[in-house]
Amino acid sequence: MTGRAAATGPAGLIDGPGTSEAAWRRWPDLPRCPVMDVTAWSSAVILAAHPDDEVLGAGGVISLLAAAGSRLRLIAVTDGEVSDPGHGDAAALALRRARERADALLALGAAGVEVLRLGLPDSGLTGRDGEIAAALGPLVAGFEACLAPWEGDAHPDHEAVGRAARQAGPRVFFYPVWMWHWARPDDPRVPWRRAVRVPLPAAVARRKRAAIGCFRSQLEPRAHGGPVLPAGFVRHFTRDLELLFRAVRL
Questions:
Q1: Which of 190, 193, 195 lies closest to 180, judged by CA?
Q2: Helix H segments across the chain?
Q3: SS3 category, 116
Q4: What is the DSSP letter of 148?
Q5: Structural domain spans, the chain
C-alpha cells in the first residue's frame, strides 16, 4: 500500500482516526453476508495496485485457492516505490517490497503464484484506466475470476485499478482495503447488498497474519514519521473472514 500522504482521495476519506476494528466486530450484519466458496474456482487472477494490497484484502482467498490447486496469477500494477518518500532510493524500495511480497506469498502457502509486474508509477494511476485495462486484457483472459481493489476505496490508485478491472476482467470481485478505515457499519456509501464473505479457517487466518507481518517496510516506523500501516489499521485484516463485492456490469 502507499500511505495517506499520497492517498487522501477526492473527499479526504483516508485522513482522520477512522473506524475501529472493535466497531466493525460489534456490527451483527457483517458475519451475515452470503457465503462464497472460492475453492470452486479453477483459476483466478488477482490485481494489486501496490505490494501488500492483495494480502490485506484477499490474502485468505489466495491461501484457500492455492491449497485447492487453482491456477493463480498476481498482477502488480505498481511496485509501491513511493510509499516512503524519505527512503531516498525508489528503485531499492521497489525491490524490497517485491521481496516482501514473495515472502508473504510463501507464508500464505502460495509461493507458486505467477507474479507479473506492470511497473506503472505508484500514486500515478489516476486517469490511466484505459491504459491499465488494455494492459490487463490479455493477462486476465481465460481466468475464471478476477479479484481487484474496490473501485470505491477512496485511494486513487485502488480505484483506477478497480475501474480497469471492470473493463478488462471476466468475473470480477472487488476487495476493499481503505474502506475499513473510513466507512462505518451500515454505511450507505458501501454496496453491502453486493457483499459476500469468505470464511477463513483458523489455519488460514494464521497464515494471513504471518503474511501481513512480512511487509516490514510498511509496518515499521519511517525516518520521517510513523508506519504506513498503523497497528489499528492492520487489525481490520486479522478477522476470520474476508469480504468481497460482486461487480455489476455497466
A1: 190
A2: 21-26, 53-67, 90-107, 129-140, 156-168, 179-182, 202-212, 216-219, 231-234
A3: strand
A4: E
A5: 4-246
Give the torsion sign (CA, 175, 165, 10, 128): positive
pLDDT in tens, 99-148: 999 999 999 999 999 999 999 999 999 999 999 999 999 999 999 999 99
| Burial track 152-183 (b if 16+ CB lie within 10 A, e otherwise) | bbbbbbbbbbbbbbbebbeebbbbbbbbbbbb
Residue-level length of the chain: 250
78 has which bridge partners?
A: 120
Q: Using the CB atoms, write b or e for 239-249: b if 16+ within 10 Å.
A: beebbbbebee
**By C-alpha distance, which of 110, 124, 120 is closest to 214?**
110
Residue whose C-alpha cell reads 473472514 in the numeric block = 241
Indicate the average pLDDT of the chain. 93
CA distance 205 to 82: 29
Mean pLDDT over 223-236 rounds to 91
What are the backbone angles phi and psi of residue 149, rounded to the nearest 5°?
-60, 145
Which position has the higher pLDDT, 15 or 185?
185
CB atoms within 10 A of CB 86: 8
Q: How far apart are CA 31 and CA 242, in angstroms?
A: 10
CATH class of the region 4-246 = alpha beta
| Grid cell for residue 62 | 489466495
- In which order are the strands placed within the sheet that holds 241-246? 114-120, 71-78, 43-48, 145-149, 172-175, 241-246, 195-199
Using the structure block, give the residue that is written with the C-alpha cell 505490494.
Answer: 51
